[in-house]
Amino acid sequence: MAIELKMPALSPTMEEGTLAKWLKQEGDTIEIGDIIAEIETDKATMEFEAVDEGTLGKILVAEGTENVAVGTVIAMLAGEGEDASDMADAAPADPVPGEGKDVGRPDASGEGSEAEIAKPAKKSGVKDPEIPHGTNMQTITVREALRDGMAEEMRRDERVFVMGEEVAQYQGAYKVTQGLLDEFGPKRVIDTPITEYGFAGIGTGAAMGGLRPIVEFMTFNFAMQAIDHIINSAAKTNYMSGGQMRCPVVFRGPNAAASRVGAQHSQNYGPWYASVPGLIVIAPYDAYDAKGLMKAAIRCEDPVVFLENELVYGRSFELPELDDHVLPIGKARIMREGSDVTIVAYSIAVGLALEAAEELAGEGIDAEVIDLRTLRPLDKETVLESLKKTNRLVIAEEGWPTCSIASEIVAICMEEGFDHLDAPVTRVCDEDVPLPYAANLEKLALIDTPRIVKAAKKVCYRD
Amino acid sequence: MAKAPKNKTPRSPAENLDFALHSLQEELEKTKRYDASEEQLKHFYEQMLLIRRFEERAGQLYGLGLIGGFCHLYIGQEAVAVGLQSALTEKLDSVITGYRDHGHMLAYGIDPKVIMAELTGREAGISKGKGGSMHMFSTEHKFYGGHGIVGAQVALGGGLALAHQYNDDGGLCLAYFGDGAANQGQVYETFNMASLWKLPIVFVVENNQYAMGTAVGRSSAETEFYRRGTAFRIPGMKVNGMDVLEVRQAAEIAFTHVREGRGPVLMECETYRYRGHSMSDPAKYRTREEVQDVKEHKDPIEGLKKILIEQGNSEEDLKAIDKDIRKVVSEAADFAENSPEPEASELYTDVLVEEY
């Protein structure tokens, strides 16, 4: 059967090209791999190579013709035993419908509109499990809570292991993995060389291979070297594989500013990771959430970025003594109920927001404090419910203001809570500068309680 | 001052005295080619031919606009995937590669229809049309992709190997990458950890001579890639990647070494890609004569065809194989063209596994 030779698309963006030159003439024998013609695209001159053998029949588009649409029949090729000269002159010279670029991609407007696209179901009404009456409370640091969460999950599931710099023999650069090597041995508590990109990739690959790695970064500042694996390898794989290949890995470590360590060691990556579909991003504040969400993160089938805070590691909180304290991912927590203004915060800023609420109470302002706990997926219902009640909202975030979680909350309030607003939603963040070293400048750059108080009073028109 | 030109005819790695880690190469030098049964030879031939015909058709469909984006063809390199993967233990060993991945999937016996349908972005594609040419996976076959970031698959492969070691399942990981990826930092980070922890992994450099448009000599200070594991105490092998029997023989040696718990192996397969880096590459960085010379003198399929004919197969027998394969490929192409695109409702599926 005669084969139609069509104007090829030679790049992802090519829609038409110039048929620069015919290198074979009518009647020539064509072998596979022969160059038949030269075609000029918007980028380069390309050779048009034969993928079938036969005899070149009628040439339908003369050389030098410009703007030949992709898919246009440019010549006929006769197969074995066919007479090339017999071939109809009437072969279509126009592009065959549906054989240009991007066939099948509907350009009819309306198709695939938002109304038809089913967004994933969201679990609603999920609450933290009730703490049974009479449960003993223990006082524990965030550092211990994180370690206990990991240890419990390691006892529960053989596939769970920890890897990272200084996690084993040194007992953790910030002592979060203290004691794990003694209990679980070097197979499950693995010291890595200082090689973030490499071990983040190995951890991600191990998750693809069926294990449950916890990859510790000494700080998330160093994870920037590894962000490619977190985003390109871990976050996207389930989607790119059509749901075949999971990647249940937890990337954890301290995030954001510590104390006087300068700009390179003092960045909050919450907004970065929270912008990536395919990731779960958790940033707990107290020991209750640190442990409960750490256990949830390890059990989670999706890749998790778990952002801790060095300055909070040593703080003590009450934690119920339960056999299995697991909290829901994606749910914010009301830390303090109030009716006049909502302060939304996460991680270390929750502590500042609670302090601010105390101060505001002294001035007759009843503030509600919400800890987001999970930054992705964000629990906007809890935020909007609170806004409905207080009609005023401030976001407190230890991080830069531009393209921040705070910005995201502002957008949500504008889009979905506009009718409930009595004042502009206000961001209280760090100053928009790399974090300085000098003590006085560092203090100036970082969010603090007075700034939150001031913003809350402003949205209450009490300043 | 220009340096004196390098000696262009390196000695065999086995005789190269400043290359210490040559024990595996010495073994390969003893018997260079795998002693395949007649049935195996035919199977290799069929698999290589399937890859070639499939890729030719993919190129055609790209030209027709049925395949979009980037599409990297494996034509010329067939012996590497077929030689290595034929030596793996099915359902046990894992494989991972970069974006030039169609050949590795076909060498695994994965249905050409679902691969082609992925290339055309259809619902029936192996990734439901959401991955495309560079992002295909088959966990059922322990094929872990299909990765578009150059070199990422090496570290991920290290993780797969770690999982084999952790589970003590006796399996190994085969991690392919190109001469271009061989200059990425994470490759060496992985070499270090793989050797330190004696991970069961075979690193395979498919040296097809060009990192996109940059010839090996213009991008690499050390062009003998098999030596690049030396600093990490990883033994190296240099293999003619255009000879499926030599590749298979090298695979036997490397896999035995790894399965004995002796740590990783770095194998360089010298090969050549006939087509451009991707479909939109005019390949002006090399001469047509150079390509033609490889096709005429080193073609892996023609090489094996000669052996099959020497063994008494007729041209007609082999033509019949070709005909059958063309039919399989045509059916795959028809399937890929006629399958529907994914439903709009698939847009938000598979972003996350769980509901929150």
TrEMBL record, chain A:
InterPro entries: 2-oxoA_DH_lipoyl-BS, Biotin_lipoyl, PDHB_mito-type, Single_hybrid_motif, THDP-binding, Transketo_C/PFOR_II, Transketolase-like_Pyr-bd, Transketolase_C. One of its GO terms (molecular function) is pyruvate dehydrogenase (acetyl-transferring) activity. Its EC number is 1.2.4.1. Its cofactor is thiamine diphosphate; (R)-lipoate. The keyword Oxidoreductase applies. The keyword Oxidoreductase applies. Residues 87-97 have a biased composition (Low complexity). Residues 2-78 form the Lipoyl-binding domain. Heterodimer of an alpha and a beta chain. This is Pyruvate dehydrogenase E1 component subunit beta. It comes from Qipengyuania polymorpha. The lineage of its organism: Bacteria, Pseudomonadati, Pseudomonadota, Alphaproteobacteria, Sphingomonadales.
TrEMBL record, chain B:
Keywords: Oxidoreductase, Pyruvate, Thiamine pyrophosphate. The keyword Oxidoreductase applies. Pfam families: E1_dh. The keyword Oxidoreductase applies. It is an enzyme of class 1 (oxidoreductase). Gene3D superfamilies: 3.40.50.970. Residues 47-344 form the Dehydrogenase E1 component domain. Its cofactor is thiamine diphosphate. It catalyses: N(6)-[(R)-lipoyl]-L-lysyl-[protein] + pyruvate + H(+) = N(6)-[(R)-S(8)-acetyldihydrolipoyl]-L-lysyl-[protein] + CO2. Its EC number is 1.2.4.1. The pyruvate dehydrogenase complex catalyzes the overall conversion of pyruvate to acetyl-CoA and CO(2). It contains multiple copies of three enzymatic components: pyruvate dehydrogenase (E1), dihydrolipoamide acetyltransferase (E2) and lipoamide dehydrogenase (E3). Heterodimer of an alpha and a beta chain. This is Pyruvate dehydrogenase E1 component subunit alpha.
